[in-house]
Amino acid sequence: MSTTQFTGLMASLTRQRGVLGCLVVSERDGIIVDADVRTGVDDAAVAALAAALYRRARLCSEAAGLATVNFLQLEAEHGHICAAGRDDLVAVVVAEKGAPVAQLRTAILQAVELLA
Amino acid sequence: MRARVSEAWVELPLQHFADQSRVTFALLLQPSGQVLGQFGFTRAMDVMAACSLAAAINVTAAQLGRELDGTPFRELHHAGRERELFIAEAPSARGPLVLLAAFDGESSLGLVRLYFRELCASLAAAAAPVLASEDPTKLDLGENLERDLDRSLAILFGRARPDSEGVISVPPSIPPA
Question: Tell me, what CATH number does B114's domain have?
Fold first, then answer.
């Protein structure tokens, strides 16, 4: 398995309990830059939709005068999607329902510091 | 905004694609350049020009892919400063079709590719069966091509209607687009 500049970042996230996958996505294009996801997760669809969601949230926050979005969490029936970004890159984590979201949040915010 | 089509079976797939991907323009055409449906265009001349160019780009890119890679390039994306362009071939039971989509910051390449995947599946499911006498992979570049191009455009812009058997009649008093 080849290593990339995001291998360490993704390893720090995928080793968290309950994480089903981690992606680094271009916010503008919605295209996967790097990904490590379990079988059954449609990585291209998650990347495109999560990037669009994050972008809308960022624009919404800026329009409301709240400045930038630090962390985005989507709670679904069977799990969570968490995202945080820097410049044009967004780190997206797909986690199952029982995942410790507070720990995930800390890990994602630390990981985002490595995005550039 | 509604998609306008010259063949009814492409309407729902094209409308769904345009609605979900939030593209500004979309064209579905045969590799010969004959338009099947469009979204976002208001002038027949624009559709005609875009179809000609899309068909030429598609066949050029396919041949370039064969020369370089041994297989046709699957899709083509051009990222402009304000707008981006996506051209790809969609297989269907009626033979390959070509999608051209233009989009801006309201959409993204990832979204367009995602919903193009759905469009391909919808077209494959919706395509009318091929008659035994037809070869869907064969381009009609014969004597009927120009007439068919004009007829498709006429239907798209409301100047002609297909009859109950799908035969299209264009009033002679109305000049072609």
Answer: 3.30.450.30
